Amino acid sequence: MLFVSITGDRTFMKEKPDISSLLVPVTMWLALMTAATPTFADNAVKLKVLIITTGDVAQDPGYAYIKPVLDEMGVPHDVLNAETQDLAAEMLASSAQGACKAAEAGCVGNYNGIILTDSDLVPNFSPAEWEILHGYEQDFGVREAVLSGWPGTYWDPNPPYGIYLDYGLVFSSAGKLYDSKWTVPEAYSKQVFEYVNQANDLRITDFAFAATPRKEIQTLRDGTVPKVEPLLRTQNGEALVSVVRYMTPVKTTPVREVMISTITNSPQPLHSKVLAYEFINWATQGIFVGARFVHMAAHLDDLFLGDHLWDPSVKGNNLANIYRLNGTDIDNAVSKQGDLIATHPLAGGFKLDFPFNGYGAVVDPTAMTLATNLADELVSAVIANKNNFRFINHTFSHRLMDKTPVPAEAPCDYATFTDMTAVQAEISRNRTVWSLLGLPEQNENDEVLISGNHSGLKDNKCTIYPAMHPDMPNIQADDVGFDQGGANPLFLQAAASLGVKYLASDSSQQGQNIEQYITGYDDGSQDDRVMLPRWPTNVFYNATNPTLLTDEYNYLFHDRFVSAGQDPCATPGAICSPLSYTEILGVEADKALRRMLTFSKWPHYFHQSNLAKYDESGSTVLFDWLNAVFTAYERLFTLPVKNYPYYLIGRRTAESLDAKSTTVEAVWNRTTNEVTLSAGKALSGLLVTGLSGGELYGGQSIRKVNLDINGIATYPVDRALTQ
Prior knowledge:
This protein is an alpha/beta fold. The chain is 25% helix and 23% strand.
């Protein structure tokens, strides 16, 4: 079959290959789409998104871009690979008799949103398939979002002929860099990109087609005419993101609506991260299972202990120079935290988190009384300001929790535990100090634990300190990762026995960069611990001021490569030229910003030395970083940032994992404007966007729903989009 693309001065002939086998046969689609669906009157759709791709995640950058966002938000979705699958009407709406229409009693549309990774899906998406897709969108009132592509017009040379695909745009220019500006019409001001700071330009840093709305009218063979409303334009006024409303002469409202981006969107560019949410929100009309929040939490590990500091003269740590926070630093932190909140309104009630080691707070280990330990000014200052911060159990003395070597007498450069009682003591003694100091929310925080160096989750094979192994250039080469059986069952058993539910992990380590229930290890409990990843940063633990951080940063990422005769510009992970402190903050803030825009809850972790006051104005390396991050964020977004305590991150993560582990059925009955929910197992805290009675966030109502395994719950819809 041949079909023709009319694209200004370009005409393409494309042939549809013969697909002899489908990844998901139509019979399987029918079974999946009709199973366990409650009976509804007409005009109903399931809350599920259909993504139509040009390949798998390795082949289609648009699919690789949008899939992680849907997964993080918890939005149910199916995928049709246009390269290997044909679209059939039965896939979109079906009953026991086959394909059905919205007006038929009991006919439920299988999707309330369509996302196309490419604007034309050629050569393998035929005119007939476009007709099926557009017919479903018109019949069930379902929107479509197009992530990227050429804004072309396509005419079918075969019967019934005519234009079957047209976005109402005429190509005008192309490039890799645009400083685009927002031009959202008033009619859409509360409904599209309302979370974006539209006062600022959005820099487009990957290839994009720019276009202008067509002046002459072209009628598609379905009788509609595309009317374009540009939302994001180049400085010259060309459209980069638009809403296309397909109109007919007999209706004043559109029969079909499409949001099209002619920008190349993929996982890496910052502009893609800014745009991603609206493609999903638009397609689903703001009603979907799942939700998005923006998060930032900063953990300062090792409170009450000291850190060796970087020495520029030796390009390493000076073991004689140790910094431990003092009372002035804590008082200053309270002031700088207040300044952060006052300067950055989206920071809300931001609080620092202190993972602490009680050993450093106990002046006299034999006298576990408050009066004795108040002699230490740091302890006294922490107690006096305790309600300004949050605290996390980081074990009593920061002892490593790794496996005992085999054989037991093998040389090991760190101490190991041989019985569970000693491991339990590291956790429980820190709880005792918590009570002694009267720190807030102890009961809740007993659920969560951060081990020293995130130990116990991989096996370091007795080598962790480079200075002790000068003849072993890569002492980590034999490490056994968490997913390879490297976790210490003794540590997991001790945590489980003391009621710890959530364990911190280092997202840079193998097998630890995913939220997951910890299975595959016997911890002696019927329940599984939940792994809570944390993000490391290049704000190093041994830097108390800009001079130390800048020297170490440039040495690690530039100077040492030059000294070794390597070209840093050609070395992965290196930088071409040394950076100033301000430039370093910019680079690191950009990394944090990109993480925030994934909607992940993971905290960033630092160390107590980063809170040291380094000048008369009270500056600290940590608050320099936080201010840089919030400045970059507020330039792009208007959403308030969530700053959850770690135990709450644990609870929310567990709820999310539970929801993703089962099938959630959600049907939106547009006649009654209600959503009916059911699930394959009991769920607490299922997030659904667009239901009445929820939390308003970014102008939308996000409701937490509890579902009984045998129950079906119905809730009224409230799209909100007015705040």
